[in-house]
Specification:
Radius of gyration: 42 Å
Oligomer: single chain
Strand order of the largest sheet: 2-3-4-5-9-10
Order of helices and strands: HEHHEEEEEEHHEHHEHEH
Distance between the termini: 55 Å
Largest sheet: 6 strands, antiparallel
Length: 444
């Protein structure tokens, strides 16, 4: 029985050993990198947050309705006038409710309306009284002279752009930049792992050949055809190769770990085969067209362009705090008839407002606030805003020049690497001939 078990175990091992190893390519890792790269995940979350902030800002421009109620209770004792000892305990309870409506205006003003109703019931020894006090109010607040303009509509739109639209655009740019950076980093790690594996394989072959040379040298040293110094140098060369082999293994391990993190994998990549299909990129456009495309799509340049818009909008909004404000307050309050008697009827406290002699009390107020002297704050703020716009413009111009120089240098480096690749091909061919001749001499 035990023999059958071990035979079955060996059979399973043979099947597992013949299973094909997983193979990945530089194209197949793209979905894994996009899904698992930490920087991309953070950028996606930040983009979603910016969308939520914009929606929150726009939600604040819609009509806002709030309702609240507050019950109240009190107990008091009233004493009759004079020196009489008679007193009366009064118990008062009531409730106050309010409904408010607010609406932001495109003139950067605000419209608000509120309906409040207070009801108090007082219970005494002889009678119970009910008092109902409703109140309706309507108010408008409107800034007048903002940034030297009467009813400046640009403040409202500047606030929407600065705190709503521009953060979304910046997050979209950063998310795209994170995706590009993550993929470029993953491709570089892929190429690095593939290159280290190839170097390690060649290094092991060189180590094997050097070990054979050392064995042959030991024989020749005994025969007297080479000196002990020659043998010692061969031993040093072997030790140097062994040391560099360890460094290559460590570098390969680090690169495989970095690639695994990009892919979101915890498995050991040493058992995974990397496809050698690393694509070559060719540009049909000339260098001027590439520079023009870079200027139009480079994330850094797009952010610097947005910085100029931000500075302009900030200047518009900053002038708002030094503006003149006009506030209009209009209040409506229903009143009972002057001939109305106190009633303890709860329903009458509502219906009595519709009596023939009941009336509506209207109050109107207009207030104007004009800043006269602010210690020079407005002048200093305008100076700060002007400098911020100039800095944003200088940063954009400098970044444009850096992008132009970078593209030109990349084309020059591509030409240089192409020539180096041709030279490396020639050296490889010569080295292959040398190794073939060495093997032929060793076989003789």
């Amino acid at each position: 029985m035990r023999i059958k078990f071990w035979l079955f175990f060996v059979f399973l091992l043979s099947i597992c050993s013949t299973l094909p190893a997983e193979e990945i390519s530089i194209f197949s890792i793209i979905p894994e990198v996009v899904e698992n790269d930490v920087a991309m995940q953070i950028a996606r979350r930040m983009l979603d947050t910016s969308h939520a902030n914009r929606d929150l800002l726009f939600a604040n421009t819609l009509p806002q309705i709030a309702a609240n109620q507050a019950p109240g209770y009190s107990l008091g004792v009233t004493k009759a006038p004079g020196f009489a000892d008679e007193s009366e305990a009064l118990f008062t309870h009531g409730i106050t409710g309010a409904v408010g409506l607010s609406q932001a205006l495109p003139t950067d003003g605000a419209l608000s309306a509120q309906l409040t109703d207070s009801m108090n019931i007082t219970v005494g020894s002889d009678e119970t009284t009910v008092e109902q006090t409703p109140r309706i109010s309507l108010s408008i607040q409107q800034p007048l002279f903002t940034n030297g303009k009467l009813l400046d509509f640009s403040v409202y739109s500047a606030r929407q752009a600065l705190y709503g639209t521009i953060p979304v655009i910046k997050s979209e740019i950063r998310e795209r930049a994170a995706r590009n950076s993550g993929l470029i980093g993953a491709f570089a790690e892929y190429q690095r792992v593939y290159s280290y594996r190839a170097q390690l394989k060649n290094h092991e072959m060189s180590l094997e050949l050097t070990g054979r040379d050392l064995q042959l040298g030991q024989i020749r040293e005994k025969q007297g055809s080479i000196t002990s110094r020659d043998l010692w140098e061969m031993e040093l060369a072997l030790e140097s190769l062994e040391e560099s082999l360890l460094e290559l293994k460590y570098a390969l391990l680090e690169s495989e770990q970095a690639l695994a993190r990009r892919l979101g994998r915890e498995t050991d990549l040493s058992k995974i085969v990397l496809s050698p299909g690393i694509p070559e990129i060719y540009f049909d456009e000339n260098i001027e067209e590439i520079i023009e495309r870079s200027m139009a799509a480079n994330p850094e340049l797009l952010e610097k362009t947005l910085a100029i818009e931000e500075a302009a909008y900030s200047e518009t909004i900053a002038g708002r705090q030094y503006s003149s404000d006009l506030s209009l307050n209009l209040t409506f309050q229903p009143r009972y008839s002057r001939s109305r008697d106190s009633s303890d009827d709860f329903g009458a406290s509502f219906t009595d407002f519709f009596d023939e002699d009941a009336y509506l009390d209207t109050s109107f107020s207009l207030s104007l606030s004009i800043p006269v002297y602010d210690g020079g704050q407005e002048a200093h703020q305008r100076r700060i805003d002007a400098n911020n716009r100039m800095v944003a413009d200088l940063n954009l111009r400098n970044s444009r020049q850096v992008i132009m120089d970078t593209v030109q240098n990349l084309f020059l480096r591509r030409s240089m690497l192409t020539e180096k690749l041709k030279n490396a091909g020639s050296r490889l061919a010569l080295e292959q001939e040398r190794l073939a001749e060495k093997e032929r001499l060793r076989s003789e």
